[in-house]
Amino acid sequence: MATDLSYIQFVCEQLRGEEATYKKMFGEYMVYIEGKPVLLVCDNTVFVKQVKELEELMSEADKGYPYDGAKEHYILDIENTDLTEKVVGILKQVTPLPKKRVKKS
User: Fold this and answer.
1) Across-strand partners of 20?
2) pLDDT digits over 20-77, tens only?
3) Sign (positive/negative) of CA torsion 26, 53, 100, 5?
4) What's the Cα-to-Cα distance from 47 to each of 59, 97, 100, rounded to whole Å?
5) Are 11 and 39 in contact (CB under 8 A)?
6) How far apart are CA 3 and CA 23, in angstroms?
7) If DSSP codes are grouped into helix, strand and coil, which group holds residue 67?
8) 1: helix, coil or strand?
9) Across the strands, what pairs with 22?
10) What phi, psi does 95 have (nearest 5°)?
11) Total Cβ atoms within 10 A of residue 22
12) Would strands 20-25 and 28-33 be described as parallel, antiparallel, or unpaired?
């Protein structure tokens, strides 16, 4: 089941005060904050990459796989605004900007 457009818009609304954009990828979405890929939204569920900086904060969070073949991710309760704000703040610091791809001519 693919993510609904209304759900991805809801996710972005929950990121109050952030410069959030999203991009559709294979029926699912990547949410970018300040140009950095921070949240993966699949099947109307928000996934967060497991990084050491989030271990303590997300220790009680459910975990899951956003798609077949993916590594295990934390599942973020996007409606928990305090947790979401903290997670996004950490991820903005530790997530690099994507590398520019050179187009082949």
Assistant:
1) 33
2) 999 998 779 999 999 999 999 999 999 999 999 999 999 999 999 998 889 999 999 9
3) positive
4) 14, 18, 24
5) yes
6) 12
7) coil
8) coil
9) 31
10) -90, 125
11) 17
12) antiparallel
Write down the pTM of the prediction. Answer: 0.89
Where is 83: in which H helix or E strand? helix 81-94
The secondary structure of the chain as a DSSP string is -PPPHHHHHHHHHHSTTS-EEEEEETTEEEEEETTEEEEEEETTEEEEE--GGGTTTTTTS-EE-SSTTPPPEEEE-TT-HHHHHHHHHHHHHHPPPPPPPPPP-
pLDDT value at residue 1: 65
Q: How many residues are given for the chain? A: 105
d(CA 31, CA 16) in angstroms, rounded, equals 13
Cα–Cα dist 79/11, whole Å? 8
Nearest to 75 by CA among 64, 86, 84: 64
Q: Hey, which residues does 11 pair with through a beta bridge?
A: none
Amino acid identity of residue 84, one-letter, is: T
